[in-house]
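[agent] plan:
  1. take the single chain provided in the ticket
  2. run structure prediction with default settings
  3. attach structure tokens to the ticket
  4. add a short note for the reviewer (M.T.)
[agent] executing step 1
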Amino acid sequence: MFVHGFSEYIERYDHVFSNFAERGIKTFGWDQRGFGKSAIKKADWGKTGGLDKAIEDMDYFVKQYQQEAQKAKIPFFIWGHSMVCFLGGFVAGGLMVRVVSSR
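[agent] step 2 finished; step 3 output follows
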């Protein structure tokens, strides 16, 4: 799973994802709120909904795609750029708690 940084859009990384696909690596990403195709009007650019929404969105996709990876018995990685390093700490902390508590 790839999460783009602040003021970016997911299609910016298409050349990377196609390179991974050629090697059999499935990659998922989305435009975060306020960026790329999620910001339809120019007035919406950068309107992320705040830190809580960004973490909530990332956590949603982590849960969904981690479950898919577990069912398929394949590794699951979170890769990101820029603000994702910050957000990922919150999500990874919650992810670690879920993994430990499910054992």
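[agent] step 4 note for reviewer: The chain has one domain: 2-101.
[agent] ticket updated
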